[in-house]
Design brief:
The structure is a homohexamer of 335-residue chains. By secondary structure, chain A is an alpha/beta fold. Chain A has twelve helices and 16 strands. In chain A, a hairpin with a 6-residue loop joins strand 2 and strand 3.
């Protein structure tokens, strides 16, 4: 009863992921405009033509899969669980850098000898009934248990806080999402060492058919990837300007290339610095370095006689083409 | 891996029903004691031996059904949906008086001629594919649709706000819980006149096997019913004391029995009132009347010469045996 | 463009008075039912046929005056200011017991010799331009100033926090509502001793024409007065039961009437108390006393040999007819 | 520089005890009136002449001890710690029923064999330096440690969360206030079985000299005790009215006295119930029973043919004289 | 009674505009310092000599008009409504970019044929009494209605939520401020297509006489305009640095000028980039572009062989003189 | 019972200083990672190997002094009060720029002639008992009073709001921390003009022995100082880029050096600007200036023909070595 020609992206409507998605997009330069806090639709003024919807993370996967929406930001966990077997969903960006957690096996602290999946398999063999495992991720959990040799098990699906299941007694252990692990400790559960079923974080997903058949959707995908990648790259870098004395730009550059961090860069921009005293020979070098190498870079600049090291933030760094664009183009063409 | 001999009751852990359950129990004289807000267990000091757990309403039904817990306070909606076919769950009290809502069919406002189930059935026959209906209550929805002659339909299960489904396009209409109906209006949906699948409110449920096999659980059931019924009865009544002049108690009583509201009562308590002036002949009558007949009762008392009408609150009214106790005893015996 | 036959009562929509009105009505037994927090209408299940609207206190006066609504709960201050000259509004109950404040004159603390209205008048005569007085109550303020002999003045109407006007300089002093006086002190203002223009609290008002022409509105007025008066009376009283030893009820009563507080009551209810020991001669007396005389009553009961003094709350006390009902009936008939 | 003739009571200004004190007093009928939330003084309209001050619990003890204030509501813990040796402070009521906690010894969970004070003493003897114990209660802690045979120790006073001291390393274990014990568990500490130095709750204290020398202060003490005791007694009781059939009041009473709970009461009030049918012989009995025996009382009433059992709340129960009044009078005279 | 020589600026004290004004000023580099949250005055450390006051938006207009304060940030709506006829107020900056809304005509949804001002005029002619229009902006509303040919109307002034007026019945339609329109929809009202009386946002206003007579106030005006304009301009731009390969700066520049966005700029800064490989010929170009053309600029840079495009934020962009300064100077001299 | 080889820094756990410390560190590039909000430990991902603890400001001083932790951020006030006499604590950075306040003497407003320390000394001599002074800083207060010639005094230590002490009467005046002074005014106290015992703000402190004996702690100190100083320096500066026309860089530079603000800088970076028109001769100059001289710098740039002045934020400015590093190295070596 409905056919549409707008482009749609679904964002998480509730929970921690919802709280982090909007600031993430704003940081990418894609601030939302919500005319009415109680309705389901918003827009992104920087991307005219796009309609933003709000759904639960799991429902986003369903909507993208069946083509009701074209793009979604949701967790890798629910994408893997509900994505379906036949590739209707493409993961355009698998690491947006927030909402990280892992899907993992937790057992009662009281099971003293059970610390790894092998121990759990051994225990499962000793008891005379199937291990009862509460989870909201049966599709991911079942093959994982099989892989680790759990002979028989029964998956129990519940909607709420699974951590209480073993204490209440309707399950023996659980497979659930864990971030800090505190809820587990509060309920006297412990993780198994190698019991991580999946590491998850927020991802950008899209409907494959829409990408293949609608050029405007493909364009939107490229634009989203541009903004997101340029932002994520910028987040990890800073711009440094330093004054260095030297006879000539080439001399200074040579000294820089002899350093470890500075030597790895493509090349500094160099401009003369005019000083009051006649002594001259000062140059300003400008480089972009990874934020986590900042201190080393400063030390190396000092080592080659640099001073007045000024560090400034950057908003975006664009490379020649979005990294994940080619991968997407190939995936879209498959079958 | 676990066997237990404590008595357990599960209460809602989240949402509106959770907020109302604790004050309801406190008003019944069954205040909770939660030593640690972050753990799953509490106690009711007035009912020693009982462990209180907190779960989502749907999980409560599952836990009571499989016997992990003995009692639960949850909604009639999830009890009917998830209770299972074979009578594992007994509904001990079906009207605790809070968390009322209804499970109902809602369609887009734009479907102008569709206002009742018959209209929906007619529409469903006209379109050439199954009607897609989003719901979290497939068990209750399917037979309801069949009863109203919907020929073919597909139930779509989603976890979040179903009201957006028709707008997003992954369903044509929905069957969902409705209280004030505002969310429907915000999303441009409307209820069908005769589209109420179920009227729900909070209920007290129990595991039938536990009631049949454990005398301590049966005792607890009786105590819970006592407290709850005595409170609910008291909530609807007040105690009235009035001074009435008359030659003798019998005369006053006769006048009272001639009234409509007063005449329906079992009988007033009568005690003499000592007055300063010799004129005498005053009596205090004390009666318990329904709160919603209070004004009529006051008018009738005035009509027979009553004055100084004092109304006082009551906490509990106990009848000879909890009303629902006999019903429970019979249901427990059924196979 | 509209004609109506429902009965309407307007309640404050904002501020401290709004917060206190709903609990007050609930305590009267008139709880509100608001199906939708974002709309303007509610109902009172105990008074079917009544529509409840929410408006600002000043707008309530306007609506009752022009007959758009029949009843209102609002402040005496805005009723006096905006009620209009020709008696369109009747004040049915002038002391609902909440939202108390006074409209009063405040001047800068720095005006050292100015402590009473006389001082202000003297000052006003000394300066060579009209005194500038900021107020939101010009109708009440002007005659008050005239009465105290202020020769010339200019009233300045502002919408916000008037207390800053003298400091900013757009007025010399203010006439404004004061409750605790702290905002005045924060802004270095002080009240004048005899500068109280009006003492205000919440009141029940009605449209006179509606009362005269619509019997259903008159009925509603009576019911509202019944509930409100019975509640306010009960709020100030408690019910006492005490065991007193004595040869006969008459003896005990005589001793009671010899006391000050107990002697002022109409008469105690007396019933025998059955005691284990043969010694007998105990009676339970039950009386209703003013809450602020409770301690004296207890002391007097002890003085005549009373013990086991139990004090219980009361919800309503109904007298033979609502006190203010007759006054209303007379006022309604006035031209 | 100051002398005063008002009567002063200090209440806790902060923390959990502060939050519970005001509702407790209100329930006693002693609601506070705070004209200005930012100043230090309030009044109790029901007790004219009394000034209410707000201080930290520990400062209240100091102020009552030195006579700056006459009464205080504070914890038994700080009273015992800071009360001083020479009886300047009298505890008028030692169990106001809120703010319960205990001062207890806690050691790292990792100290596996250390579970009781004896184990701690043994450990202290094994190590070659004094045990370092962080506490805010050195006066109470030192003799307790000596009593349990700890040979040498060093008390370390800190202002904040002592629970982190062992982990940070500036103490070996702690003596601190514990309510739910959760903070201990979060910091991997455990209580010693017999390590309770003091059980504490809110108490009413007074300055002994003021009681001895100022009759108005003594009067205030009596009034405070009256209100508080009558409230606390009422909190634990309910009033029951039941209809019982019997030939005569004496017969019914005899049957009641044969029961366990009912038999322990001083005596029921009895009044005839007028019934429509001629069969007659119904009486209303009214009794006051302890709230925690309510169910037994109802069962016993049913057992003797009672029905229509109505339970009502009570606000105060006054005995002939405040229980603790005589004790206070004696203590005041000591020395 | 008061004369002053400080410079004063009034800011909104309440509501959405107040919440946005302080962050706006902080973003301009003009953070407020409020020593006492409860008093009316603050300062701006970056502008010594200025006193900041807080008033309601409407009162700000009054204070600036009568010269009690020199500058104000308030809405264009209240400025137009209350600014007075004789040019006492100058609008120095009419578009501060926040608190946007429009003053518009809204009528009941039920008026089916009424969708534009012409329809309203036609309706007004058909009814036999003046159209009653509730508004808080009579000065702006009256001429607007006249312009659209409404023959007779009565303006009803109310203080609160005007949206309920048509439903309650004390007005037929309203002229009120609208931002998202949701409150209208909740109250079943709709906007008329051409019914916008005024588009409003936050503005900087000043007292004309103060600007003309006090050089220090004129200086402050210039400084305020400098900060505000430099911030607003910066908000809409970013700084881009990119590495481009080319034989010489002139060659690269020529290629840039052939592009659309890049070609519109005044000119890039160019500096050599030193690269490790001998191949050389790299230059860094730095340009400032409008934020909403960022993507096009990046695409154009790529098109001419640019890579490593780094985008950085800017705080201020100063042009040669504040744009609105000259306009102010002329307006000040008028009359 | 414990020995450790990790490096520890303690941060304030409560109050205004705690709220400001975390954003301060984040601005320095040292964001905290708190896996569990209820435990005492966190880490700083940018400084691996460091453990972060949370304590009250006073306890931090104790822990750093006794070596339980190596570094602390706390107030100068508690450091001076509790730091101990023998130099166990080194103040590495004494001005982190937040949590500013002063420790000062306050007396009742009613003491009219007492406005300075001399007046207080005179008063103290007139009264016949020691002045009672409430304070939480006896170590700092005592010598200060002696220095100002107060003959005899008694220091009274209290835990809570000292401001009420004079009103309650357990002290005559107080020495306490003051930020805005509003609490003083609320309690009718006033500061003495020269009564400032100490000006305090947040500081970075360290344990001297740890610095001397553990090279890893010394390294951490250097890194902390680097981050903190580079951030604080950056906070006070901005980077300016402007286009200036001139025949050659040297000409432009000469003009700049003739200005006041621009002339004080070490030297601008200069790069050519390519313009469309042949007229040429434009250069971009880039300088870093103090934020509070920004306006003057802009004016000077305009004066020498500059335009397109763009101001950008900076995150860090590193000088050749942390300023306070040398001072620390010397202090560490002192005995």
């Amino acid at each position: 009863m409905n056919y549409r020609d707008d482009i749609r992206v679904s964002l998480p409507s509730k929970g921690r992921m919802a709280e982090e998605t909007e600031p993430f997009l704003a940081a990418c330069g894609l601030s939302l405009y919500k005319p009415n806090p109680r309705q389901y639709a918003a827009t992104i003024p920087a991307l005219p033509g796009l309609t933003v919807l709000f759904q639960r993370p799991g429902d986003i996967v369903v909507s993208v899969r069946d083509g009701s929406v074209d793009f979604g930001i949701t967790g890798l966990d629910v994408t893997a669980e509900n994505g379906g077997p036949n590739g209707d969903i493409l993961v355009l960006h698998e690491a947006l850098g927030f909402a990280g957690c892992k899907l993992a096996v937790a057992v009662p602290e009281a099971w003293e000898g059970v610390n790894a999946m092998g121990d759990l398999a051994a225990l499962a063999k000793r008891v005379d009934r199937p291990l009862r495992i509460a989870t909201r991720f049966p599709t991911l959990t079942a093959p994982f248990l099989v892989r680790y040799g759990i002979p028989t098990f029964r998956l129990i699906e519940a909607e709420g806080t699974l951590e209480v299941a073993p204490a209440i007694g309707y399950a023996d252990c659980i497979v659930d999402l864990v971030s800090s692990g505190q809820t587990l400790r509060d309920n006297r559960l412990k993780l198994l060492e190698d019991g991580v079923v999946l590491r998850s974080q927020a991802a950008l997903i899209a409907n494959r058919v829409a990408l293949r058949t609608r050029p405007d959707v493909l364009d939107a995908a490229r634009t989203l990837l541009e903004y997101i990648e340029a932002h994520l790259r910028a987040k990890g870098h800073v711009m440094i300007t330093a004054n260095v004395r030297g006879e000539a730009p080439e001399v200074i550059t040579r000294r820089m290339f002899a350093q470890e961090v500075l030597g790895g860069l493509q090349g500094p921009t160099i401009a003369p610095v005019m000083v009051k005293e006649a002594s001259g020979g000062w140059y300003a070098v400008q480089i972009v370095v990874r934020r986590d190498r900042l201190f080393e870079a400063v030390a190396e600049l000092r080592a080659i006689g640099g001073s007045g090291v000024v560090v400034a933030p950057v908003m975006y760094i664009f490379e020649e083409e979005p990294e994940r664009y080619q991968a997407m183009m190939e995936a879209v063409q498959e079958i």
